[in-house]
Amino acid sequence: MIERRKFSRVVYQANAIILHNGTSLNGSLIDLSLHGLLVALDDDCELEPNEKMTVRFTLNESDIHIIAECKLINKTDNTLRLCISHIDIDSISHLKRLVELNVGNSDLLLRQLSELTTLT
């Protein structure tokens, strides 16, 4: 199988809050990249592909919050595959640093950031 992934994924566990249509859903972050998140919901709910939602989580052992507007790519059981559609500058800066620390290759990260800016 050919690997199509353009962005390095990092295993990262943290509690997450998913805001969708005025409802707050609780879940756990499983992994993340500069372009997406994998989240396990605590409870099942009906969601359709392409639905928009906001995901909020706090970096472990800090008071740094990351907030990202996301689009649902796929839902399997209670696991959501999300694509980040918008993220503020502070959140992307913290996310970049988190990925950089876990990937350990700043050249690779710079290539991924360049790729991120070319996505529409």
Describe this protein's structure:
The chain has 120 residues and is an alpha+beta fold. The chain has a single domain (10-118), classed as Beta Barrel (Thrombin, subunit H), CATH 2.40.10.220. It has two helices and six strands. The protein has a six-stranded antiparallel barrel. Strand 1 (10-20) and strand 2 form a beta hairpin.
Features:
120 residues; single chain; C-di-GMP_BP_PA4608; alpha+beta; 23% helix; PilZ_domain; Thrombin, subunit H; nucleotide-binding; c-di-GMP; 6-stranded antiparallel beta barrel
Order of helices and strands: EEEEEEHH
CATH class: Mainly Beta
**What is the radius of gyration computed over CA atoms, rounded to a whole number of angstroms?**
14 Å
Query: Strand count, sense and closure of the main sheet?
Result: 6 strands, antiparallel, barrel
Structural class: alpha+beta
Domain count: the total is 1
Mean pLDDT: 86
CATH superfamily membership: predicted glycosyltransferase like domains
Q: What fold name stands as the CATH topology?
A: Thrombin, subunit H
- Low-confidence runs: none
Q: How large is the share of residues in beta strands? A: over 45%
Helix percentage: 10-25%
Domain PilZ: 3-100
InterPro entries: C-di-GMP_BP_PA4608, PilZ_domain
Keywords: c-di-GMP, Nucleotide-binding
Organism: Aliivibrio sifiae
